[in-house]
Amino acid sequence: MPSLLDTVRNSPRVDQLLSRCTFSAPPAHVDCAVSGGADSVALLVLACASGLQVTAWHVDHGLRDNSHTEAALVRELAAQLGAPCETRSVVVNSATNIEAQAREARYGVLPSGVLTGHTADDQAETILINLLRGSGAKGLAGMQPTMQRPLLQLRRSETQGLCDELGITYFHDPSNDDDRFQRNRIRHEVLPLLASLSKRDIVPVLNRQADFLRDDDDLLNELATALDPTDALALAQAPIALSRRAIRAWLSNPLVPDSATVDRVLDVARGNSLACDIGLGRQVRRSQQRLRITEPENPK
Q: Count of CB atoms within 10 A of residue 11's CB?
């Protein structure tokens, strides 16, 4: 009887899906984050089928009873595919923003550059979340397509279909049905409503718009690098889209400034004020048409 890995490598569906993935060329080594859901299971299967040297990584957040059984599922699948598996347990503060806390804890123990199973459906949800946050062109451009997200051109239905065809058991996270979480309401309510109103599958439309905006955003960022953010006159005279980007890049260490902070700095460049706060006790001040950042004085 053929092994699961042999079945995977001889599957026409696997070949078809791999043609739309962005894995690095074999025999490179990659780490795959595998929760046990269909998307991450498909990620592991496709990475192994592509000839890469794969290590599966599973993180147990301890948020559900018997969550250790998910780790066992991932370990068994990885063994069937000939991939080593690393498991980690983390403690999540469930009192505030569970999603953000779990994500931070998860990435705190996963290796740098780990691959994730984000799909085109995840991209569409992210775009709408960023729209509600008012995050501008960068947010509406969605997640950057990189080798760390090799499944961004696949649909969630395709990852589930792949698992079903290969007879691979995957786990359905019940928190994905909890309407307390914004992403779930967008997934189960907003996207179906938009599809009904437009009478078409809205996910490819949102992904295509993100591609357009990402190209525009990349061009504007490139143009903004030619602008000296400490030259008040140049900032005041440049198109506002470039001025804002130059200021944001200048101030982005250690934290990315919000739009209100950027606009305050632009007011200083225009001569509407001599200085403004930019957070962490720092200020931007104008002197002789130059802008400079002043740090807080150390207490004596």
A: 17
Question: Which CATH number applies to 4-119+154-177: 3.40.50.620, 3.40.50.880, 3.40.640.10, 3.20.20.150?
Answer: 3.40.50.620
Q: Which of 30, 31, 33, 49 is nearest to 41 (CA)?
A: 33
Which amino acid does the sequence have at 172?
H
Cβ-based neighbour number of residue 297 at 10 Å: 7
Cβ atoms of 115 and 32 closer than 8 Å: yes
Reduced to 3 states (helix: H, G, I; strand: E, B; else coil), residue 67 is: coil
Q: Which residues are CB-contacts of 121 (< 8 A; sequence separation ≥ 6)?
A: 155, 156, 187, 203
Strand order of the sheet with strand 275-279?
275-279, 282-287, 290-294
Which residues lie below 8 Å from residue 200, measured CB to CB, with a gap of 6+?
none
Domains in the chain: boundaries: 4-119+154-177, 225-294
Note the pLDDT tens digit of each residue in 162-184.
999 999 999 988 888 989 899 99
